[in-house]
Amino acid sequence: MLQKALVLVFVVASIASCISCGTTSSHYVYATIPAVNQVKAYREDPNSGVLTEIQGSPYPVGVGANSVVIHPSGKYLYVANPGQLENDISLFDIASNGSLTEITPRTPVGSSASQPAYLAMDPAGGYLYVANIGSDNISVFSINSSNGALTQVPNSPFGIGLPPVNMQLTPSGNYLYVTATGGQVGNDGSIVAFSVSAGVLTNLGTFASGGFNPNGLAIDPSGANLYVANTGSSSIAIFAISATGTPPGSLTEVIGSPISDTSYTSEVSMIFDPAGTHLYVAVQGSSLVAVYSIDPTTGLPAVLTTPNSTGAYFTEGSPSVLAIDPTGEYLYVANQGTSAGIQAFSLSSGALTAIYTYRVGNTPSSMAVLK
Q: In angstroms, rounded to a whole number, what is the distance separating the alpha carbons of residues 117 and 66?
């Protein structure tokens, strides 16, 4: 199973701690480090993309901390802990300077659920969705807006029927898509679709992923199209999300999908810029980030072509997770090779310019950015 991760750190001879961080224009970056059961916290300088570790970081968390999400209010942070005898969710309060305080006790994912690995939250911050890789189901919790506390919704967890690999909600929060292994004749990859109503999941069907070993997912900001990184077949499949079909939320692969480049190996994760005009793809086997512009009519990606762009930018070994600054000015790439490096790039019309490479010591598994 591929771990997904991002952690950012500002190095000036060594990792620096920020004593007086937290201007109103600052963003904060949080990363889970499962090998040492920690969450690290960083302040981002919005003018440079540089991050500085916050005083008090790293913070202890549950065993095997694997995924992190932030409540849209900016008040709460949640971490999935899939480790042995853990199987729970940690809740942290976020202070104005970005520092964290855990609110205990941790919330179990349920007696019929195990190994919570991936988290997703609806845009309104009403519900938390937890994909459990040990039990092939999804636990759903309502979120108390006054204190961030979690309460499992009736009939949770909801079965997937296949081993989950990743998941993502549409921008509206009305549909949830899960990449999964197996389930299709002649194709070892599937996408399981759910409609969402007040946290309750209704299975809309299982769709072929358009390739092998589907992994990362991306949905354009309009919610019109779903993009799937098929790692095993080194391709990207594009699906139209039905708004009025039978049923709404079902998937139809668009004409021209999947796309692939024979020089790329093992696309693993993807992210859109905030405008939805460019798609960034971590190509793990080729140690690069591929950049695509998006046709506004068809939704099909095309390799970015500019006077100063080659369409692909080399990274350190095994780039696995991408994170983008909410302003769309900076891209961060987490590499899971032996160097455990994090690379920062500035963005201009989709093109990348390297800023710095950071050393983090242990491979991080996920990240979230506080806007």
A: 6
pTM for the predicted model, two decimal places: 0.90
| Dihedral sign, Cα of residue 164, residue 266, residue 274, residue 93 | positive
345: nearest Cα among 337, 334, 336: 334
CA 7 to the chain's CA centroid: 13
pLDDT block averages, 10 residues each, the chain of length 371: 38 35 67 89 88 92 95 97 94 96 96 96 97 97 97 96 95 96 71 96 94 94 96 94 89 94 89 95 92 94 75 86 89 80 86 85 84 81
Biggest alpha carbon–alpha carbon distance for the chain: 59
CA distance linking residue 22 with residue 20, whole number of Å: 7
What's the residue count for the chain?
A: 371
**Residue 186: how many CB atoms within 10 A of its CB?**
5
How far from each other are the two terminal CA atoms of the chain, in whole angstroms?
29
Q: What is the DSSP letter of 56?
A: T
